[in-house]
Design a protein that fits this description.
single chain, 5-stranded antiparallel sheet, 36 strands, elongated
Length: about 550
């Protein structure tokens, strides 16, 4: 089925939402009209169909019934007249919240414009109608949700979907907040995208009513929604408000919050927002979104989790010409510091210094750093971190830079092979493994107990024990082998010659405290190389865990 959408003057009408509807009025497919007003729809089967065209600010146009046989092609021209401006809406404080508001009601009038904008935004993303790049942002805030602890920004120039929600029916069945399926102890927060908000599953499970806007929103109107109370087991859901421009009825923003959570999650008021924009062509798009939720981290005691602050994830659409530029008088270095011995996890709090320049940066909670400095042909970066101090090996890397340019790099801390050679000398080439770690005091920071890297525990006895015959099984009758060592001035310890792939137990002995719980330290295999004989590459599992997350409190 081919056709065009026109205005009353006969000019092409771009970015109209065109849908193929069946005899009951249900949409079975849709698209956006092009710059010339043209569109193509494919009927799923022979039968009688109609074509509906909608555009915010225009009246809906509906074709006559069209009988199609297999292989037929029909041509349709739809003319959309300009709609009247939205009449002044008085908000009744006793307005009822209704599922699918009845025709002619205030809520139904607002919902019509919202639905058209949401469907247009969903189709624009599907058809790549909006030329854009994406800036994704992840932030970590303190326990009060105010101070910024870390931020990660990435730009994706390919213009893939900004974000996508889970299946609407599954969200209503299993909840908008639930345990992650692939990570033990993690919680997933799901946010609504445009397609979810107009789905039957969402509309049938939420009621709507018109609400007044607070003073800071000026002449806007709100279409509030909340979950309908039904029988059965309650699941986490969302409530919120779709904010529209009062005079035009155009969609501006969605604010939402989670409801039905446990006390631990609910008290931190998780929620988010989705912003909407409209191009001069009339194309709607999601111009930004943000999801705010509490974050937890594993405590020093095994199996415990502590509140670590608030986490924000989101992004925004960068239209052509919106990409950030580097000032012409500086060179920018943006990078990521990872740990090669722990599966390339980010290194937090590392100092990255451009040697000889006086410029430095600190990696944030995501391992990212950024600095701007006068250009040189190249800069040598030196990375300093308690983990490196504990391992006893330096990390330096050269990077070319130029004025007005951004250099991006990933810096991996020394590999296991380098660590073995530095710590074990001649034993590095023998069959065995090295267990290495460090001990520091701990202190309270807000809600958390953290290791204090500025206070290493010196001259502390450390015992490393493993099954004498190797393996990972521990029992009362298992013969054990043990080696003792002493932490140095940096709180560092290591034991070489441990059988590889063996479960070890590390016990730190302090005059004031004896740690009896396993520290969770893994062994790093020695003497193995990859098939390419690259000594810097590792084969097999078993990363080093440093610092050792032990229970060694400050001395009284």
């Amino acid at each position: 089925m081919r056709g065009r959408t026109l205005d009353v003057a006969g000019a092409p009408l771009a970015s109209a939402v065109v849908a193929l509807v069946d005899a009951s009025g249900r949409s079975v497919g849709g698209t956006l009209s092009g710059d010339d007003g043209g569109f193509v729809l494919r009927a799923p089967a022979a039968g009688t169909w109609r074509v509906r065209a909608e555009r915010v600010g225009q009246r809906t146009a509906l074709s006559e019934p069209l009988a199609l046989a297999a292989g037929d092609t029909a041509r349709v021209v739809l003319t959309l007249a300009r709609a009247q401006r939205l009449a002044a809406v008085r908000v009744n404080a006793r307005e009822r919240c209704r599922v699918r508001p009845e025709e002619g009601s205030r809520a139904a009038e607002l919902w019509t414009g919202v639905r058209q904008a949401l469907e247009g935004a969903a189709l624009a993303m599907d058809t790549r109608r909006v030329p854009f790049s994406l800036e994704r942002v992840e932030r970590t805030l303190d326990g009060d949700g105010v101070a910024l602890l870390g931020e990660l920004r990435t730009i994706d120039p390919t213009g893939v979907r900004l974000f996508e929600s889970a299946d609407p029916a599954e969200l209503q069945r299993s909840g908008w907040v639930r345990s992650a399926t692939d990570t033990v102890g993690m919680i997933e927060f799901h946010g609504p995208d445009a397609r979810t908000l107009v789905s039957d599953a969402f509309v049938e499970s939420h009621c709507m009513r018109v609400v007044a806007a607070p003073p800071e929103r000026g002449a806007q109107l709100g279409l509030a929604f909340e979950p309908v109370r039904r029988g059965g087991r309650p699941v986490p859901d969302i409530r919120g408000t779709l904010w529209l421009d009062g005079p035009t009825g155009e969609l501006r923003e969605l604010e939402f919050a989670y409801v039905g959570l446990g006390e631990m999650l609910q008290r931190h008021a998780p929620g988010g927002r989705v912003g909407f924009g409209r191009l001069p062509t009339g194309t709607w798009f999601v111009d930004g979104w943000r999801l705010r939720m509490p974050a937890y981290e594993e405590g020093l005691e095994r199996g415990t989790y502590d509140y670590a602050g608030m986490r924000e994830v989101g992004g925004r659409t960068l239209l052509e010409g919106d990409l950030p530029e580097v000032p012409p008088n500086v060179a920018r270095i943006v990078g990521l510091v990872t740990d090669s011995t722990t599966g390339h996890f980010p290194v937090i709090g590392a100092r990255v210094e451009a040697e000889g320049t006086g410029y430095a940066s600190i990696t944030d909670i995501y391992g990212n750093f950024r600095m701007e400095l006068p250009a040189h042909d190249s800069v040598r970066l030196r990375i300093a971190h308690p983990r490196l101090a504990a391992l006893g090996v330096p990390a330096r890397v050269g990077v070319p830079v130029a004025l007005g340019r951004e250099s991006m790099l990933t810096v991996g801390l020394p590999s296991g092979a380098t660590v073995r050679r530095a710590l074990c000398g001649a034993l590095a080439d023998s069959a065995g493994a090295v267990v290495t770690g460090a001990l520091w005091d701990v202190r309270r920071v807000g809600y958390r107990t953290v290791l204090d890297y500025s206070r290493p525990l010196r001259a502390r006895d450390v015992s490393v024990t493993w099954p004498k015959d190797g393996g990972t099984e521990w029992a009362i009758s298992t013969p054990l082998e043990s080696r003792r060592t002493v932490t140095d001035a940096r709180g560092h310890f290591h034991v070489c010659g441990v059988p590889p792939n063996t479960r070890v137990r590390v016990v730190a002995v302090d005059p004031w405290y004896v740690a009896t719980q396993p520290f969770g330290v893994s062994v790093l295999e020695m003497g193995r190389q990859s098939s390419q004989s690259d000594p810097e590459r590792e084969q097999g599992p078993a990363p080093i865990s440093v610092p050792v997350p032990g229970r060694v409190p400050p001395r009284p």
